[in-house]
Amino acid sequence: MVMSQELPPELQHKIMQLQESQERLRALILRRQQYEVELREVQRALEELEKLSPETPIYKSVGTLLFLADRDKTIAELQDKKETLELHIKTLERQENLARKQVEELRQKITQSLSSTGAGGA
Questions:
Q1: How far is Cα of residue 16 from the mean position of the Cα atoms in its chain?
Q2: Where do the structural domains in the chain lie, given as residue ranges?
Q3: Phi then psi for 60, rounded to 5 degrees?
Q4: pLDDT tens, N- to C-terminus, the chain (122 residues)
Q5: What pTM value is reported for the model?
Q6: Looking at the domain that runs over 2-121, which CATH code has it been given?
Q7: Torsion angle of the four alpha carbons 30, 36, 41, 42, in this order, in degrees rounded to the nearest 10
Q8: 65-69 and 58-62 as β-strands: parallel, antiparallel, unpaired?
Q9: 3-state secondary structure 50-94
């Protein structure tokens, strides 16, 4: 950025903070989306298991192998996993909201600094 040589160090620092905050926000969004995909998979598995009779044999994938699994135990494990994922998603949503506010506050400060230094028109 050629203009960075003309900007005051404090403003350059704010711009760096903004870029770091935006990266942090992107990472939070990505992680939340990954958890949401995993949650949908768990919910689909639970729905399918609920349709089966208790006597129907089910298999669980462990690495490249399939093992006979207990239906009720598998349902309990998936429900635990679902609750954990939902908790992670809620936590990440709160962190995202805080990060969004931080990004917006930094943007406003940078905009104010640019307009007060006269660099905004460049």
A1: 22
A2: 2-121
A3: -115, 135
A4: 445 557 888 999 999 999 999 999 999 999 999 999 999 999 999 999 999 998 999 999 999 999 999 999 999 999 999 999 999 999 999 999 999 999 999 999 999 988 887 655 54
A5: 0.80
A6: 1.10.287.370
A7: 130
A8: antiparallel
A9: HHCCCCCCEEEEECCEEEEECHHHHHHHHHHHHHHHHHHHHHHHH
